[in-house]
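User: I'm new to structure prediction. If I give you an amino acid sequence, what do you actually give back? Let's try with this one:
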Amino acid sequence: MRILVQRVLSSSVSIEGKKVSEIGKGFLLLVGFTHGDDEAIVKKMLDKMLKLRIFADENGKTNLSLAAVGGEVMSVSQFTLYASCKEGNRPSFVNAMEASKASALYEYFFQLLKENYPSVQGGVFQTDMQVSLVNDGPFTVLLDSKELFA
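Assistant: Good question. You get back a string of structure tokens that encode the predicted 3D arrangement of the chain. For your 150 residues, that looks like this:
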């Protein structure tokens, strides 16, 4: 499982020209799954993400969590986090989990996120979305379960 965490001043998701969700200061999460991911990995990754301290404290040091700054969360499924460009110029997605399994895991992740954090918005799985954001910093962190929990 991979979560690309972007610290944002704002983010929104539109589908077919209609805004379906919007947040202010917080995290934009791009979430992808690979073969072998399961609910145990989802729980660990959610916990890690919620405890990230990437907001500045009163001294300008990145020392505060999302909850500490009262931030919001936008979560968007993103199978392309597992794109491979190792061979040729056209990305291969063989490392991305099959859509039906990924959909179930993403729904589990999103439900768990809503149960553990008060202000959560999201996109729509397997839908062509336009994601807008104002990246704060910019500050972007990639959480990869294979690196964190191998």
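You can read the tokens as a compact description of the fold. Here is one thing that stands out. The chain has a mean pLDDT of 96.
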